Amino acid sequence: MTIEAADADLAARARAGDDAAFGMLVERHQTVAFRTAYVVCGNAADAEDAAQEAFIKARAAMGRFRAGAPFRPWLLAIVANEARNRRRAAGRRSALAVRAAAEPAAPVPLPEAAALAGAERRELAAALARLGPEHREVITLRFLLDLSEAECAAALACRPGTVKSRLSRALERLRLELEGARA
Q: Please, which residues have CB within 8 angstroms of residue 32's CB and are 6 or more apart in sequence?
């Protein structure tokens, strides 16, 4: 049985009220949910909270989950939305703190930077960190989390064609960042 077929079976059981089936879906997707939230939030604590809240919201919305639809993209869209909400809230809190302290906020480190080794990978991580959130999200979802374009589209709440164009612009921007760092 493929992962998608197993997810479809578990999702159908969860829609029917089987909490154990939903628990299995949580176990199966908690790592990618956390990573997706981390990419969007840029903060482990917020990412953990966002992923947990997304699972709670997904459980409450299982009745609206369309039978036969792939579960992972649906879940990741909920995770990404929750993480964006937390990032916006954190941004507002940060802006208030900056205004109150009259100091610029410290840059948020890129989550993958800690895991990357070697000079080229550190350079890539630094270039990714310099990208805007929209570009960083699409590159991370597609290449670091290895999501398909359709899954990226679901996680980013946009069309697959939009993912392609964002990815193209993001990769071009990343190339320019890397060339600028080497110059």
A: 72, 76, 145, 147
